[in-house]
Amino acid sequence: MQSRFEDIREAGAELVAISVDTVERNAKVGESLGLDFPILSDVDTAVIKAWGVVDNEGGIGGADIARPATFILDAEGVIRWRNLTSNWRIRSSPEEIIEAIEKLPVLPHGTSDLQLGRMHHNSEGDS
Amino acid sequence: MTRISGKENPAPEKVTVHAADGRRLFWSGVLLALLSFVSYFGFTLNLPGSAGYTWIHERLVEVGAVIAVLSWWRLPPRFSTRIGTGMAVAVAALLLGYVHLYSSMLPSTEGVIQVGQRAPVFSLAGPDGESVGLETFLGKPLILIFYRGYW
């Protein structure tokens, strides 16, 4: 993912990772892999539970950890794409993510509220 | 081969009548099982939400294995590959067991935030220890990756 980070930025998107590891461990991982995007710590698993991406007792010693998952949110915070790969060996490839971003409806500056409202009409109901 | 007892082959003369059928059926069963196994790992697992399709492959492997096992009894008793084909059936059973075991370890897609839903907000500590909220990243598309952790 890091290798295509520039392309993702160029596509106008931000990249953030979440794991249940501690801040220290995530900092170490980020440093050793040279990541330009942050890995946030969901130590108490509250966020992965809220997102429904918990792999119950999937971690070492039966700890709850996140299942590998990738979401693409639009500028408004609505989920536009997700990949819940069941095989941790095959994560979503940067290519398919970039492709998905490019397919997102573009929100030009000055987009009216009316347009936004229409765009998110479907999402309001189930959230 | 020569030690196969009459009890196991109650009607060998009938079996030979259907020899060709048995062989063809047997191999199509083996092929079906193998193809559904290979396509599961080679194709379906790459699909988003692949856990939902696992059962199709499991059923296909099962159907293939059942065909192979049933037709195995119709193979001619002196069919030189009989031992080999017996092993193939065993392999099919192993494949099925593996797919089943593998898929049973997959977390279900139930309860996962769906496309179209609003992202649940969060505020978490970044690598520098500072807490950052989801809203910090919005305003442009955001790719959010969940890692298993425990690197």
Write the topology of this structure.
The complex is a heterodimer of chains A (127) and B (151).
Chain A: H1 5-10, E1 14-19, H2 23-33, E2 39-41, H3 46-51, E3 54-55, E4 65-66, E5 69-73, E6 79-83, H4 94-103, H5 113-119, H6 121-126
Parallel strand pairs in A: 1-2
Antiparallel strand pairs in A: 3-4, 5-6
Chain B: H1 12-17, H2 19-42, H3 54-72, H4 82-104, E1 123-125, E2 131-133, H5 134-137, E3 142-146
Antiparallel strand pairs in B: 1-2
Helix pairs in contact in B: 2-3, 2-4, 3-4
CATH architecture of chain A: 3-Layer(aba) Sandwich
Helix content of chain A: 25-40%
Rg from alpha-carbon coordinates of chain A: 16 Å
CATH class descriptor name of chain A: Alpha Beta
Derived structural class of chain A: alpha+beta
General description of the model:
The complex is a heterodimer of chains A (127) and B (151). By secondary structure, chain A is an alpha+beta fold. Chain A contains six helices and six strands; from the N terminus they run αβαβαββββααα. The longest helix of chain A is centred in the N-terminal third of the chain and has 11 residues. Chain B is mainly alpha-helical and 151 residues long. Chain B has a domain of 93 residues. Helices cover 50% and strands 7% of the residues of chain B. Chain B has five helices and three strands. Chain B has a two-stranded antiparallel sheet. Chains A and B meet through β1, α2, β2, α3 and β3 of A and α5 and β3 of B.
